């Protein structure tokens, strides 16, 4: 029963995560680093952001298999249905946010910041559930555990690499930098901080309630 509750929390977090990604994308200032390559591809080929997200996630799982080899466990395969669901959630939330078309730069910034808060809360919720990881985070964990690097530094290097590759793909396919903008950098800097902030604030509130009721 406890495991079932954790998976329910994870699914809620996954949907919140997709909503944050979609709102950041709708802000039209770029997208989150993990979605940058799928987003650039979706701007240049007739597949949706969600569909390219699924394909990219499956690629990350295959690379994890190559990195981990014997350490690749059956539980890692849980990333496959999670990736498919996450991709469908992204397409669903992109449709739900059809009305968002910021007309000014300030409106774009506001949508971007709201999206970062939502995505940060989604990341916190997934971590709180503690049952599975999205392929992006699982890939970073595979690299850091195999080559004994610090997870946080590896995550930053991974995000930067994704943004750079997305930029190169954009220049290659569109002959201009399309889909990678300042919003990508802002999201990379803010989302992790916001997730940790939610963790600290909610943990403090839970301790306070526990103390008050004791």
Tell me the layout of helices and strands:
Elements lengths: L1 H25 L6 H12 L4 H20 L10 H18 L8 H25 L5 H12 L4 H24 L7 H32 L1
Helix pairs in contact: 1-4, 1-5, 2-3, 2-7, 3-4, 3-6, 5-8, 6-7
Structural class: mainly alpha
On the 0-100 scale, what is the average pLDDT?
A: 89
Q: Nearest-angstrom radius of gyration?
A: 18 Å
What is the CA-CA span between the terminal residues?
26 Å
Question: How would you describe this structure to a colleague?
Answer:
Keywords: Membrane, Transmembrane, Transmembrane helix. This is Membrane protein. InterPro entries: YczE/YyaS-like. The protein has 214 residues and is mainly alpha-helical. The chain has one domain. Helix 1 runs antiparallel to helix 5, helix 2 packs parallel to helix 7 and helix 6 crosses helix 7. The chain is globular, with a radius of gyration of 18 Å. The C terminus is likely disordered.
What labels describe this entry?
single chain; 214 residues; mainly alpha; disordered C terminus
Describe, in short, the structure shown.
Helix content is 79%, strand content 0%. By secondary structure, it is an all-alpha fold. It has one domain (2-213).
